[in-house]
Amino acid sequence: MTLRHEVEQHRQNKPSRLAREMSAYMPYDLAMEMLLRHGVFKWFAARRDLLRLKDSWRLELHAARGVRCNTLVHCREAVRKICKSPRLRAPDHDAEARRWLERRTRCA
To answer: Which residue, 13, 9, 78, is CA-closest to 41?
Structure first.
């Protein structure tokens, strides 16, 4: 059983890291395909986008002060764009998954 502090101390996940762990039970490419099909690539990428967006909002809200309504509308639109992004994308910090996805989409 994984304890909460172990999860919090574990390095941030990447699709390629999960596929390497899963490769003890199945071929690496099959694991990557499963993660892609189930949206793991997209949501790891979306999580990174949301973290960057959160930082930009903090600065924007601090600067906007009186115009918060327009700023919040802009923020909601940005989140919607991330959530509706294509499934065929990999997180920007996982070069291995990006290369794998690029090879896969070139062959298709």
So the answer is: 13
- Which range has the worst mean pLDDT, 18-22, 30-34, 81-85? 81-85
Question: Under a CB-based contact definition with an 8 Å cutoff, are residues 19 and 32 in contact?
Answer: yes
Angle between helices 95-107 and 15-22 (to 10 degrees): 80
The angle formed by the CA atoms of residues 41, 46 and 51, to the nearest 5 degrees, is 135
Q: How far apart are CA 69 and CA 40, in angstroms?
A: 33
**Which residues, other chains included, contact 17 with Cβ-Cβ below 8 Å and sequence gap of 6+?**
11, 94
> DSSP class of residue 85?
S
What pLDDT is attached to residue 107?
76
Domain boundaries, the chain: 15-107
